[in-house]
Amino acid sequence: MAQERNLTVVITGASSGVGLYAASAFAKRKEWHVVMACRDLPKAKKAAEALGMPTDSYTLMHIDLGSLYSVREFVNNFRASRRSLDALVCNAAIYMPLLKEPLRSPDGFELSMATNHLGHFLLCNLMLEDMKRSSFRDRRLVILGTVTHNPDELGGKIPPRPDLGNLEGFEKGFKAPISMIDGKKFEPVKAYKDSKVCNVLTMRELHRRYHESTGITFTSLYPGCVAETPLFRNHYPLFQKIFPLFQKYITGGFVSEELSGERVAAVVADPEYRQSGAYWSWGNRQKKDGQSFVQTVSPQARDDEKAERMWDLSAKLVGIV
């Protein structure tokens, strides 16, 4: 039997929504200790206590994915804790569909791309070294996906569709006045979708570059439509009321935060999810048997040439080349 809490998983954005419930699911797995990596530690502490997570099951550590300095500080603080890193879940995301003008990160990048992609890209690259040092045989790095990254799916057909172009915005340094990866006019919903395409490209490129040499499993997942997640807190109040009802009674795609958290934990820890490079999905219409399957990602997200170029430009932007 596994020794109690001798494995460590880091989950970003664990103070609410899918990240919080994934942390809670791990707290119930006696061999795992969760590092809840969050911007708002008092909020995370309150949330963990409200869910009755045992105090020995988690540690709170500060990270602001929108700040490259904060990401590096987090990595230093994690290393100082002397814990092994056996799994990493890149979950944190912001979605600000009503913005008229782009918000900027401390580094000068458009904030949703900075938080959802660039911060996680840096975190993955830095913490890969920690994962390599772990003696655990089944290490996994998981990046959350979304149906909206894929125009081939019903949920991804709603405009604006993601389009990375030729990554002109990244190539030009991604600072003001540039706010989009394709260098075009700012569009907040597209900025979010573009960042999620980058998440899938990052996962696939991690797999291509490092799976064989490290044995680490790199995957993404779409746990179903978590319509009541705080991700939508910046949307119109009417949307926040109607969207969950639409998903429950019209599309059948609705998934509770609790179930989505359990699905994340399964992809990180269960034997049937060992396939590296896979994008796991429960579909946008929940099957009665609740079974997951490996889904084909969008044409852009499976473009190997684009993946390599995105990786090189991202590495330059976050300062690791």
Keywords summarizing the entry:
41% helix; alpha/beta; 8 strands; 321 residues; single chain; 8-stranded mixed β-sheet
Characterise the protein shown here.
There is one protein chain. The chain has helices at 17-27, 41-50, 68-80, 111-133, 168-171, 188-214, 237-251, 257-269, 304-318; strands at 7-12, 32-38, 58-62, 87-90, 140-144, 217-222, 279-281, 293-294. The model is unreliable at 243-251 (pLDDT under 50). The protein is built from 9 helices and 8 strands. An 8-stranded mixed beta sheet has the order 3-2-1-4-5-6-7-8, sandwiched between helices. It is α/β, with parallel strands linked by helices and 321 residues long. The N and C termini lie far apart (43 Å).
The percent of residues in helical segments reads 40-55%
Order of helices and strands: EHEHEHEHEHHEHHEEH
What is the rounded Rg?
18 Å
Q: Output mean pLDDT.
A: 88
Task: Indicate the low-confidence ranges by residue numbers.
Answer: 243-251
Main pleated sheet:
8 strands, mixed
Distance between the termini: 43 Å
- The neighbouring-strand order within the major sheet is 3-2-1-4-5-6-7-8
Report the principal-axis shape: globular
Count of alpha and pi helical runs: 9
Strand content: 5-15%
Please provide the count of β strands: 8
> What structural category arises from helix and sheet content?
alpha/beta
Question: In a nutshell, what does this entry contain?
Answer:
The chain has 321 residues and is of the alpha/beta class. 41% of the residues lie in helices and 12% in strands.
